[in-house]
Design goal:
Serine Threonine Protein Phosphatase 5, Tetratricopeptide repeat; Transferase(Phosphotransferase), domain 1; mainly alpha; elongated; 1185 residues
Length: 1185
């Protein structure tokens, strides 16, 4: 578009308000206007009081403005509870944004000025008004819509976020006011330039497939430059939609502002809304600004909508007699009832406004030939005598018409010739031997640029054939999205020949094939199906529609068109039959071989999803063979190589889950990548596919227990190269995060710190553009935070925030896909982890109940999924223990529900060894519960050991099963020792198993178990008057090993306190030595109680310390009383715990001995201190206190 002046407008006049021309409500401009305007006069201010147009409220900073009530899809929206701005006004920080001040309220949200502390810049943050789900969807859609548009005249969206459950959008801060507020102080030239800039911004929005649907003066912001110039921004895409997107509203509902609605919008005809709807709104904006009135009515909403649909707009010059005729013509062309009669695009409108500003003839003139002549005369001031006769004018008109017809024919021939040249050169490039095609494509793109320059010179009348030519050229260059943009422009302009429909069908079908190939790489079948449904609506349906309109087009390969239609319909056999004919007719037509391969690929995935793996293998093999034939012909077409790589990756996915080797497929995929990069070395898409191949091979190695890091490093390098080559940021961010997350998981499994890899994964996710943050993004983010949290917890570092971030992400994913089993299970696992974390301020029962509901729902969706039953059983066990294994509680009802899930899982898959581990844990918990209630443990000890041994038959070297069996031996041995029975080699068996575990992995629980065994051995030696010192040293070393890995391990501190208290009772110690050991024990005990203040076992250890301290005459007051107070707390939780009852007896004897001075009672207490672990076998009655 020609620019003869600064696009930001000329400075305002220095005239004072008194010197300005008068302005009335009707909007007349106060002096006569030259046919070639000087553009120095003012436009009238708006003094009308329209009932349905504008809201009187304005903002101090005017970042965003409501230009009237925007109709909402929800008639009750106005009465819903709104989010009050005061709720945020006093809060200094929202994530990393420092709130500065409240700016105002728009149609959907409150807006604040804020400071981005990371990027050091001022921004605007928009928060949603209320909690209604539909409004949140619209709110997020606004951000995603606006983020897709990158243009200097569209307000930029930086980020979508969530703060305390409240979604927000971070946007560019525009320091200015709306065009509605600003227009009264602007010249006509400045207003026209502002609308022209807005039209240019909307053309970019239309180019990426968005229709604003609520353009008006209040949604065009004007920012004043330091030099007095102004810059326009389009804002508030709150009701925007993609042209092929399914609307969120019900049929018949309308969205937008009534006075700026096009007739098709007022009727609620969603299918008719396209870029010309926004052209109408720009015309209505001009009408309002230049006349002071809206095009239609000031009455009720219904009457305004009715007038828009049924009446013609008044001529603007009737309201403003000084308005130039050309401007009236431009406005009325925008306001045509029939979209076909409006400007075909907002760029056409901008170009006509620019012509007007330059004094050139405008396109929107119904008296075409005479008008052009008149403008030519007016512009060049050629002397024209008033005595020209009608005969001369008629002759000139006829000659002009004949000349124009000839020009059009010549242009059409020129365009056709150039397109055919581009297509021929492109085909020759692809048919040549494999070579670097970058220089070839650069030459072809230069030819396209020249072609586009020629089309611009032709004006609007050349847009139809011109953009069709550009679309065909882009298709030949393998750029279907660019082709679609050009071809839709041609179609919208009215150029709707069958050949245009054919080209549109090809573009949509190619996009469908590419997206279908990408979606097949999604491992989860349900997510794959959901995404395919979306792609079918977005690409396959319009492809099918346009190809059905193209049957009358003159085609070289009509059978290929029929095959494409059959492929889109899923009629694979018919498509393949038609392709056999097409291949026989032209051996060089490799597109037929590629479509054959795509057909077999899609068919393979379809039969695999139905459970026929062998059938899928057959079709995959045929697809690979067809790709090979296509590559033999089109050796330099990179898209064939990429399509075959996608097919191999899909096949690798299938075989990996079937447990089959994928090495050969992976190497074949990597070889294809080498060949594809020889053709197109800087292809981000190819590098991305290569990264996926490495990542899948790494995943297979991890499943087999082998080191995946070499492949993960290669994958990470490939992603980096893809980013450097300009690959798609959304898929690259997700792939990069997936690589680093798997790297982190591998390190975490080996008890190494994964935090560096987690940081890289989160950074990759932060780089995913807002409009690409879909279900997969939120699921990936949740899983990344979950790995980080698990690693921190293992090292004793609080991870509450990380678990909460994971929960938040999983919930966002669940909002998008409510019945996705992986999200349900992962969300439940995070809630289970939060319930057991002491510093997370979470209600454990609420969290666990929610987790159980999610897992029960997941099991109902996939009844044969044994892993889900494993998780559900674990959740029931946490509920059985009130969320805390140290609580000392066990509700048998939940424990038996857990056992039922484990047994049900083993009945479905007896080889799932993890179930044997949790089955053993549950039986062991039941045995301990019986013992602590002074009941015999029955067969639960043996059942636990039987479960662990059955698992070890399947996995002899599994350290978790070995550790579980070691704990079973430890607890059985402890039970026997406490009841004066031989331990039957249990301690020795436990130590042997722990040695085997620690030979492969340094795990804190293994050291804890070793220390506990040695402590019991020391206790046994002490009671038998043996030497406990070696066992005490070994136990202490083991407990300190635990603290070395996790310095906040409460059970390790409790165990050290008990051990050192036991040490103080050793024979041969002086009183000072006993008190020294008790002092050390007190330090450990205080640390344990700080970490776990209410656990009954921790309180029991403190009560035992009080007993020993009183016997050792430790310098502290009221020791027996304090010990009995702790015992009371323990017995409230566990009324029959033998150790608690024994300690109660000993402490009561001490208390009575101190009160009465009876030495016999003191002797009994001392004997009890050595014999207290016999519990109810002491033979002593508990005296009354």
């Amino acid at each position: 578009m020609k620019k003869s002046r600064d696009e930001k407008g000329s400075p305002q006049s220095d005239a004072s308000p008194e010197e300005r021309p008068p302005a009335s409500g009707a909007g007349p401009i106060g002096r006569e206007i030259d046919p070639r305007p000087t553009l120095s006069y003012y436009v009238p201010s708006d003094s009308s009081d329209d009932a349905v147009d504008e809201d009187a409220d304005s903002w101090d900073d005017g970042w965003l403005d409501a230009d009237g009530e925007t109709i909402d899809s929800d008639p009750e929206a106005g009465t819903s509870a709104r989010f009050k701005p005061q709720a945020l006004e006093n809060l200094p920080l929202v994530n990393h944004y420092q709130l500065v001040k409240f700016l105002g309220s728009g149609a959907m949200g409150h807006v604040y000025q804020a400071y981005d502390q990371r990027l050091k810049r001022a921004v605007a943050i928009k928060f949603l008004h209320c909690d209604e789900p539909e409004r949140e969807v619209r709110f997020i859609r606004e951000a995603r819509a606006q983020a897709r548009v990158d243009h200097p005249n569209v307000c930029k969206v930086y980020e979508i976020g969530d703060w305390r459950g409240r979604p927000y959008i971070v946007m560019q801060l525009i320091r200015g006011k709306s065009l509605r507020e600003k227009s009264s102080d602007m010249t006509l030239e400045q207003i026209l330039i502002a609308v022209m800039q807005a039209a240019e911004g909307m053309h970019e929005a239309h180019r990426v497939g968005l229709v604003h649907r609520d353009l008006k003066p209040g949604n065009i912001m004007i920012e004043q430059g330091e030099d007095g110039s102004s810059h326009a921004y389009v804002v508030d895409f709150g009701v925007a939609r993609a042209e092929l997107e399914q609307d969120l509203t019900l049929i018949g509902q309308v969205l937008g502002t009534p006075n700026y609605m096009a007739p098709e919008q007022a009727r609620g005809d969603r299918q008719a809304l396209d870029r010309r709807t926004d052209v109408y709104a720009l015309g209505a904006t001009l009408f309002r600004l230049l006349t002071g009135k809206p095009p239609f009515g000031n009455d009720s909403l219904d009457s305004v909508l009715a007038e828009i649909i049924t009446k013609e707009p008044p001529k603007p010059r009737l309201l403003n007699k000084n308005l130039p005729v050309d401007l009236e013509t431009i406005i009325l062309k925008c306001l045509h009832k029939d979209p076909v009669d409006r400007y075909a695009s907002s760029r056409d409108l901008a170009e006509d406004l620019d012509r007007f500003l330059n004094g050139d003839p405008i396109v929107a003139q119904p008296m075409g030939r005479l008008y052009l002549l008149g403008k030519w005369v007016g512009k060049h001031r050629l002397p024209v005598g008033l005595s020209l006769t009608a005969l001369v004018l008629v002759s000139f008109t006829m000659a002009w018409g004949a000349w124009q017809g000839a020009v059009r024919e010549e242009r059409a021939r020129t365009l056709t010739t150039k397109v055919m040249e581009i297509e021929a050169m492109a085909r020759q490039t692809y048919l040549s031997r494999r070579h670097d095609i970058r220089s070839d494509l650069d030459r072809l793109r230069q030819q396209m640029a020249n072609l586009e320059a020629d089309i611009r010179q032709y004006g609007a009348k050349g847009h139809g054939p011109g953009y069709y030519a550009l679309g065909r050229s882009a298709l030949s260059l393998g750029e279907p999205r660019l082709a679609l943009d050009h071809l839709e422009t041609a179609w919208v302009s009215g150029y709707r020949e069958p050949r245009v429909a054919y080209a549109l069908g090809l573009a949509y079908c190619e996009l469908y094939r590419q997206e279908s190939g990408r979606i097949q790489l999604i491992e989860d079948r349900e997510e794959r199906a959901a995404r395919m449904t979306e792609v079918n609506t977005q690409f396959r349906t319009p492809a099918r529609k346009y190809m059905s309109l193209a049957k009358d087009a003159p085609l070289t390969h009509p059978d290929y068109l029929e095959a494409l239609i059959a492929y889109c319909d899923g009629r694979y056999e018919q498509a393949l039959a038609l392709l056999r004919v097409s291949k026989a007719q032209a051996a060089w037509f490799y597109e037929a071989h590629k479509l054959e391969a795509d057909t077999y690929r899609d068919w393979a995935r379809a039969v695999h999803d139905e459970g026929d793996t062998e059938g899928a293998r057959t079709f995959f093999d045929k697809a690979l063979t067809a790709y090979d034939r296509a590559i033999q012909i089109g050796q330099s077409d990179p898209e064939i190589y990429r399509a075959q790589m996608q097919t191999l990756l899909s096949l690798m996915n299938m075989e990996m889950f079937a447990g089959t080797s994928i090495e050969d497929y992976g190497q074949r995929c990597l070889q294809l990548a080498i060949e594809a990069l020889e053709v197109q070395p800087r292809s981000g898409q190819t590098w991305l596919l290569k990264a996926k191949a490495y990542r899948q091979m790494a995943q297979r190695r991890r499943v087999q227990g082998e080191d995946p890091l070499p492949f993960l490093k290669d994958a990470a390098q490939a992603v980096t190269l893809a980013q450097e080559c300009g690959g798609p940021p959304g898929p690259l961010g997700l792939e990069s995060a997936g690589i680093y997350r798997r790297w982190a998981q591998w390190l975490n499994d080996r008890t190494q710190s994964p935090e560096d890899m987690i940081r890289l994964a989160l950074a990759a996710l932060d780089g995913v553009p807002p409009d690409s943050r879909d279900f997969e993004y939120y699921h990936s983010r949740g899983s990344t935070y979950r790995i980080l949290a698990k690693s921190l917890v293992r090292r004793g570092i609080p991870a509450c925030d990380d678990y909460r971030y994971a929960v938040e992400s999983y919930r966002r994913a669940m909002d998008l896909r409510p019945n996705r089993v992986p999200v349900l299970s992962n969300l439940a696992l995070c809630l289970m982890a939060l319930s057991g974390a002491p510093d997370c301020s979470a209600n454990p029962i609420e969290a666990l109940s929610e987790a159980a509901s999610h897992l029960e729902r997941a099991v109902a969706l996939q009844k044969d999924h044994v892993v889900l039953r494993y998780y559900l059983g674990r959740c029931y066990m946490q509920l059985a223990q009130d969320g805390d294994p140290q609580s000392g509680k066990l509700h048998p009802r939940f424990a038996y529900k857990a056992l039922a899930q484990y047994r049900d899982g083993l009945a479905r898959n007896p080889k799932f060894f993890n179930l044997y581990n949790v089955l053993g844990q549950t039986h062991l918990a039941l045995a301990r519960s019986d013992w602590e209630q002074a009941n015999p443990p029955g067969t639960d000890f043996e059942a636990a050991m039987e479960a662990y041994r059955a698992g070890l038959i399947l996995k002899p070297q599994n350290w978790r099963l070995q550790l579980g069996l070691a704990y079973a031996h430890f607890f059985r041995g402890k039970y026997h020792v406490r009841h004066d029975r031989p331990s039957a080699g249990d301690f020795e068996a436990a130590l042997s198993l722990i040695d085997s575990v620690l030979a492969r992995v340094s795990f804190g629980e293994a050291h804890l178990c070793r220390g506990s065994v040695h402590r019991l051995q020391a206790e046994r030696e002490l009671r038998q008057a043996g030497n406990p010192e070696p066992y005490i040293r070994q136990a202490a070393a083991a407990f300190h090993q635990v603290l070395g890995a996790n310095p906040n391990h409460p059970e390790a501190f409790r165990s050290l306190a008990r051990l050192t208290t036991l040490h103080s009772a050793s024979n041969g110690l002086t009183p000072a030595q006993r008190r020294q050991f008790l002092g050390e024990a007190r330090v450990y005990l205080d640390r344990a109680l700080t970490l776990h203040p209410d656990g009954p076992y921790f309180l029991l250890a403190e009560a035992q310390w009080y007993l020993q301290a009183e016997l050792a005459e430790y310098d502290a007051p009221h020791l027996p009383e304090r010990g009995l107070s702790r015992i009371d707390q323990v017995l409230r939780a566990k009324p029959c715990l033998p150790e608690a009852l024994a300690l109660e007896t000993g402490l009561t004897y001490l208390l009575k001995a101190r009160e009465t001075g009876d030495p016999d009672l003191l002797d009994k207490a001392r004997a009890m201190s050595m014999d207290l672990f016999r519990g109810n076998n002491t033979g002593m009655a508990v005296p009354s206190r």
